[in-house]
Write a structure and sequence with these properties.
Length: 146
């Protein structure tokens, strides 16, 4: 067991741990499911943010949400991919954080969510905080404490 009592770690600034918006794969809410599936497949990520044209965060979309939405009674209805829009399928019930969120709170949310979207007061998308970045930092802290 190890202890996580490093004040510097628990009170760290969210800004130091975010992947900035320009490096985050995303889709627009009006995109077709076909486009979203292409972006998900090409980026290799299982879930990515959905934005509006003003770069405000709208939701999250994953490959499984897309597959689920085109499942017919007996077969997968592939022709629905270019008919349905991302906004009809995306998840909107997920927590977000801001640059002012306490690091401790973000750490707790990352237990249940592989990444957290960071937004400003007006809902503008600023980037994501991922489990990988936090685990990497934690790993560094453990080694420097040794
Ligand atoms: P997943 O796509 O399920 O990825 C789980 C983990 O697999 C990632 O953890 C990362 O360590 C690795 N991984 C997957 N695809 C990768 C790729 N194309 N390049 C490098 N590593 C890859 P985290 O880095 O902690 O990311 C957690 C979740 O955050 C990802 O879950 C994905 O949904 C999202 N994510 C991370 N970086 C992203 C980005 N640049 N754009 C969009 N979404 C991102």
């Amino acid at each position: 067991m190890f202890s996580l009592h490093s004040k510097a770690f628990l009170e760290a600034n969210i800004a130091d741990f975010i992947i900035p918006s320009e490096k985050v794969a995303h889709v627009q809410r009006a995109n077709t499911l076909e486009h979203a599936l292409l972006v998900l497949t090409k980026s290799g990520y299982s879930s990515i943010p959905v934005l509006d044209p003003q770069f405000r965060l709208q939701g999250l979309i994953s490959s499984s949400m897309i597959t689920d939405s085109i499942l017919g009674l007996e077969q997968i209805e592939f022709d629905q991919l270019d008919k349905k829009k991302v906004e009809e399928v995306m998840d909107t019930g997920f927590p977000t954080i801001s640059l002012q969120t306490q690091f401790k709170k973000a750490l707790k949310l990352l237990i249940d969510h592989p990444f957290l979207c960071v937004v400003d007061d007006e809902g503008l998308f600023e980037g994501i905080m991922t489990r990988r970045v936090i685990l990497k930092q934690l790993n560094q802290n453990l080694h420097s404490a040794e």
